[in-house]
């Protein structure tokens, strides 16, 4: 049976030579966590199912640094590597694949020009194209938006871009469905409200998206302990859970999280 | 020992190259068919559509056939497994046809592609799966799967909506639907087994 995946996410600041992993709270208040390829290797050895690198500097002169990070990682890490941040065209995808990445995640550029998804999927296959959606809760039903009932009342979700600095006005749930239609292979769904808070995943959001698409959904944002992962796998159709802070700051090892999940009956790769 | 990886222009060979280097297989990337003659074992990777792979791979067909006839081990990975069959629902192009049967789309009852880690059910003890057990997970990414006419070629299956051929072993011809180069230490074990077979 296909296992649920546990994916450590490394937000990379590439303004320094080797790059460095950082992590914010609700997309702000950045903390330093380590060197990207070293952390990735540690997570691989602990049993991570996949690694996601996100370039949060995302300006063109740092692309070389990202390629070096991927190259150094791919020599030691024999699981899928996904890379995102600053992917604007098929040429950017080619560059990170040549360095050793297996998938790219696209966010801002796909919101601005959705055909980018079809172009990547056409060239490299759907499995290579992950569409990352940063979703922000908006109170009330929202006009023409998909309304989700939450314990705090009805909400809709707005897709953000530019790393959470701007809002697109686009309905995040409808966008996930559109991304699937355009050829996305997976949706990396981050709750901006939960990101870095340790309060648990946004269950209504993850449920709403995973019910509406037939591609894997990676739940992201808010993971503070293994019970949160158990919750998102039990209550939603998520295929994978992504976490950053709990792994970076030594609260939990990847292996520990997976053993805990296995004890509670979740099918994970041990 | 030298393991050659056929570079026929469909996607990145970096992962398989790194994995072969890690196990000490002295990998070489072959961009021309003539190069295949010098390899003890040959890996045929595969990314993208069946048709595109076949169009690009066809010029390597005689050299691959020669290696096969000489008993030099060949390992097809993912679409590199599918092209060993006669045809695929995915594309009109003919496959190599070295294994009787066809390639069909995964059933509608499951999410397509199958993307992630799945366990094997080992059907036969074969050298390529030495040290691998039914509890081990491997990384799969595929939308189509192989249906051999003779089920005896299948060495292992995985369960995804139905039984899917995950590994095939016929004399010196091996093929896996999953990605051993992306399947952690157990995947490297399979590549090590292949390297050992190439040495004999």
Protein model, in words:
The complex is a heterodimer of chains A (270) and B (200). Helices cover 34% and strands 29% of the residues of chain A. Chain A has 270 residues and is α/β, with parallel strands linked by helices. Chain A has one domain (5-263): TIM Barrel. An eight-stranded parallel β-barrel of chain A has the order 1-4-5-6-7-11-12-13, surrounded by seven helices. The two termini of chain A are 13 Å apart. The mean pLDDT of chain A is 93. Chain B has 200 residues and is an alpha/beta fold. Chain B has one domain (3-199): 3-Layer(aba) Sandwich (Rossmann fold). Chain B has helices spanning 14-22, 50-57, 61-69, 79-82, 184-199; strands at residues 3-6, 28-30, 41-44, 74-77, 85-88, 99-105, 114-119, 121-122, 137-142, 144-148, 154-159, 163-170, 173-176. In chain B, the strands form three sheets. Chain B has an eight-stranded mixed sheet, with helices on both faces. Chain B has a three-stranded mixed sheet with strand order 5-6-10, with no helix packed on it. In chain B, a hairpin with a 3-residue loop joins strand 11 and strand 12 (163-170). Chain B is globular, with a radius of gyration of 15 Å. The termini of chain B are close together. The mean pLDDT of chain B is 94.
Cα-to-Cα separation, first versus last residue of chain B: 10 Å
- General form of chain B: globular
CATH fold name of chain A, please?
TIM Barrel
Number of domains of chain B: 1
Into which percent range does the helicity of residues of chain A fall?
Answer: 25-40%
The run of helices and strands of chain A is EEEHEHEHEHHEEEEHEHEHEHH
Which CATH-level-2 architecture of chain A? Alpha-Beta Barrel
Q: What is the CATH homology-level superfamily of chain A?
A: Aldolase class I
Give the number of helices of chain B: 5
Short description:
With 270 residues, chain A is an alpha/beta fold. Helix content of chain A is 34%, strand content 29%. Chain A has helices spanning 36-46, 63-74, 90-99, 108-112, 115-124, 172-182, 203-212, 226-235, 245-248, 254-263; strands spanning 5-13, 20-25, 28-34, 51-55, 81-84, 103-106, 129-139, 148-150, 153-161, 166-171, 186-191, 217-220, 240-243.
């Amino acid at each position: 049976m296909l296992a649920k995946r546990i994916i450590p996410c490394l937000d990379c600041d590439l303004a320094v030579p080797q790059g460095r992993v950082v992590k914010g709270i609700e997309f702000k208040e950045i903390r330093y966590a380590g060197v990207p390829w070293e952390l990735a290797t540690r997570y691989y050895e602990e049993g991570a199912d996949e690694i996601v690198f996100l370039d949060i500097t995302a300006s063109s002169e740092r692309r070389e640094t990202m390629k070096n990070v991927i190259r150094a990682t791919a020599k030691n890490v024999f699981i899928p590597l996904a890379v995102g941040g600053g992917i604007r065209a098929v040429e950017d995808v080619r560059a990170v694949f040549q360095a050793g990445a297996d998938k790219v995640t696209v966010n801002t550029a796909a919101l601005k020009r959705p055909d980018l998804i079809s172009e990547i999927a056409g060239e490299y296959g759907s499995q290579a194209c992950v569409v990352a959606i940063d979703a922000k809760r908006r109170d009330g039903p929202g006009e023409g938006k998909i309304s989700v009932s939450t314990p705090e009342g009805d909400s809709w979700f707005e897709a953000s871009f530019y790393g959470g600095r701007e809002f697109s006005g686009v309905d995040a749930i409808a966008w996930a469905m559109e991304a699937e239609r355009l050829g996305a292979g997976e949706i990396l769904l981050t709750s901006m409200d939960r990101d870095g808070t340790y309060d648990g995943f946004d269950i209504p959001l993850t449920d709403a998206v995973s019910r509406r698409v037939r591609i894997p959904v990676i739940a992201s944002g808010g993971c503070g302990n293994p019970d949160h992962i158990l919750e998102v796998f039990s209550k939603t159709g998520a295929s994978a859970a992504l976490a950053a802070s709990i792994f970076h700051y030594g609260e939990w090892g990847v292996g520990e999280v997976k053993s805990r999940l296995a004890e509670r009956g979740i099918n994970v790769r041990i | 020992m030298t393991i050659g990886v056929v570079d026929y222009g469909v996607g990145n060979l970096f992962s398989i190259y790194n994995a072969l280097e890690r196990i000490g297989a002295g990998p070489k990337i072959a961009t021309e068919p003539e190069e295949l003659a010098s390899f003890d074992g040959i890996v045929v990777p595969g990314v993208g559509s069946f048709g595109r792979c076949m169009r690009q791979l066809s010029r390597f067909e005689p050299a691959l056939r020669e290696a096969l006839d000489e008993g030099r081990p060949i390992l097809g990975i993912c679409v590199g497994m599918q092209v060993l069959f006669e045809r695929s629902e995915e594309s009109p192009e003919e496959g190599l046809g070295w294994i009787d049967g066809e390639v069909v789309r995964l059933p509608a009852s499951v999410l397509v592609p199958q993307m992630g880690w799945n366990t094997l059910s080992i059907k036969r003890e074969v050298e390529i799966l030495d040290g691998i057990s039914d509890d081990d997970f491997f990384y799969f990414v595929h939308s189509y799967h192989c249906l051999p006419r003779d089920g005896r070629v299948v060495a292992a299956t995985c369960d995804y909506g139905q039984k899917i051929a995950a590994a095939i072993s016929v004399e010196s011809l091996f093929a896996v639907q999953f990605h051993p180069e992306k399947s952690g230490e157990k995947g490297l074990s399979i590549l090590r087994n292949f390297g050992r077979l190439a040495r004999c």
